[in-house]
């Protein structure tokens, strides 16, 4: 297949903001405190590499694609692909830790496609011995075999797990039952001490855009929390009562301030669990394809991708594939190709794909 020559494409809108932010902040670590403007040799080198590739005469299409992929890898290695830590999260985290002292049970929501990348490593420290239920949300986006494997993984480590679909309400009744059990124990102890019973206090906690607000609306049976398919919608803590038995605290999405795991960061971007302005679509789409290629069930997913885009993944490296798709469908615009791949993954057009498998985390002692 002959590919048209690629010209340097300007990036505008939110994509342009992402590029500007990365050029401005250079090699700062993902999700740290808002980085100060620094000289960014890594980003400048990356820009120079991409500029040089765009100006090279096109001798062979395949050679050009390979060179672009190599140069992109070098640029990405020089700095981080994804950077995001909204200012409201730091304040919300402090308020949340204060409120946790009054909470009886913690409902931690995770994204079923990436149940370990949406794990906040500090939650066990914050909650101490308080009961915790893992609500693995978006069960409709994960295959049955993957759900069973992850349930075994968490149960073997002593965790109570409920698979939920906040949009449809699946699993909500079981979550309420778990909270009610904790309430019975608490009020039995209060009665023994001569105190009056009170509603059990539960908090819903988790990363941005994992579906917390949708779950809360289902738990309450009415809309009290704003819900949208983008991170950062909930920005403050608020209490709501379920009947007369449960007080529910809705917390904003929180992420670690110091989050150096760029593989996890890429997966958050793939699943739209962090802000779109924090990453470059073509790079994250290439990382998504690479992740899919590493999965045990990759053959069925690769087959769907090949059929959907009429372009064989086996013929390209992942970065090359995104550029080739951009050449074929989007007038040599790899960013549009990246956006298309990410959108199709999020809308299940590529299948019900869980990007993580338990075998990758067998060595973890706290999950």
UniProtKB/TrEMBL annotation:
G domain sequence ranges: 202-269
Biological process according to GO: mitochondrial translation
Pfam families in alphabetical order: MMR_HSR1
InterPro entries to which the protein is assigned, alphabetical: GTP-bd (IPR006073), GTP-bd_ortho_bundle_sf (IPR023179), GTP-bd_ribosome_bgen (IPR019991), P-loop_NTPase (IPR027417)
Cellular component per GO, a single term: mitochondrion
One term of GO molecular function: GTPase activity
Keyword GTP-binding: yes
Region (Disordered): 1-46
Keywords from the UniProt entry: GTP-binding, Nucleotide-binding
Record's protein name: G domain-containing protein
Species this protein is from: Chlorella vulgaris
Lineage: Eukaryota, Viridiplantae, Chlorophyta, core chlorophytes, Trebouxiophyceae
């Amino acid at each position: 297949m002959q590919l048209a020559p690629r010209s340097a494409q300007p990036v505008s809108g939110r994509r342009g903001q992402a590029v500007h932010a990365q050029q401005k902040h250079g090699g700062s670590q993902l999700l740290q405190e808002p980085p100060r403007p620094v000289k960014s040799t890594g980003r400048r080198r990356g820009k120079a590499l991409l500029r040089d590739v765009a100006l090279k005469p096109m001798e062979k299409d395949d050679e050009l694609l390979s060179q672009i992929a190599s140069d992109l890898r070098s640029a990405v290695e020089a700095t981080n692909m994804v950077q995001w830590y909204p200012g409201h999260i730091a304040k919300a985290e402090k308020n949340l830790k204060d409120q946790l002292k009054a909470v009886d049970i913690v409902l931690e929501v995770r994204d079923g496609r990436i149940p370990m990348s949406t794990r906040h490593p500090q939650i066990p420290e914050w909650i101490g011995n308080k009961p915790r239920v893992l609500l693995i949300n978006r069960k409709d986006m994960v295959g049955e075999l993957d759900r069973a494997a992850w349930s075994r993984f968490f149960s073997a480590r002593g965790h109570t797990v409920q698979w939920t679909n906040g949009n449809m309400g699946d699993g909500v009744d079981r979550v309420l039952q778990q909270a009610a059990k904790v309430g019975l124990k608490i009020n039995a102890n209060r009665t023994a001490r001569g105190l009056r019973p009170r509603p059990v206090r539960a908090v819903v906690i988790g990363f941005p855009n994992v579906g917390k607000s949708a779950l809360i609306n289902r738990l309450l049976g009415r809309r009290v929390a704003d819900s949208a398919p983008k991170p950062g919608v909930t920005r403050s803590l608020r209490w709501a009562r379920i009947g007369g038995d449960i007080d529910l605290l809705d917390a904003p999405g929180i992420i670690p301030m110091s989050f150096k795991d760029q593989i996890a960061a890429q997966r958050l971007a793939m699943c739209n669990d962090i802000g779109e302005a924090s990453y470059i679509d073509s790079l994250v789409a290439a990382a998504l394809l690479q992740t899919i290629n590493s999965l045990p069930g990759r053959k069925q997913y690769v087959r769907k991708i090949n059929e959907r885009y009429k372009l064989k993944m086996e013929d390209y490296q992942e970065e090359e594939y995104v550029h080739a798709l951009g050449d074929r469908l989007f007038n040599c615009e790899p960013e549009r190709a990246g956006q298309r791949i990410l959108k199709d993954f999020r809308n299940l057009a590529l299948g019900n794909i869980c990007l993580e498998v338990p075998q990758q985390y067998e060595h973890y002692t706290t999950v």
